[in-house]
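Predict structure. Chain length: 128.
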Amino acid sequence: GETSHTTYSTFQVKVEDAKHPIVKDLKDFYTTDELYQNMAQVLPQDLHVVCKALAAKDKNGTGEFEPVLVWTQVGKGRGVNLVLGHDAPAMQNLGFKTLLLRSAEWAATSEVTIPIPDGWPASRPDGK
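Prediction complete.
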């Protein structure tokens, strides 16, 4: 299918590769955002999925877990694709901010020293 996104809604982001430095010691979290699905790949290479989220069918989704954070490598270059943060409220989510900062640090240095902040959004903000 073509790349698209779900209805703007609250969903859980699951840590897929708990050993990766970007998400080491991070727990799953909730965010309210669009979830991109059927993401097109520019280069034919393995996607290393760090985080994923369920694109719920009742939210115009595929019904599959979709990659939310992936890393790639070309030569010595490390790349990260974080598909969260589609508007200012979504960018205020502590999970998004932490993934963005830790991803940038990892891509630049191959290490992560940025700590996990207090107030991790491990439960739904709407209490459902």
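Summary: The first helix runs from residue 88 to 91.
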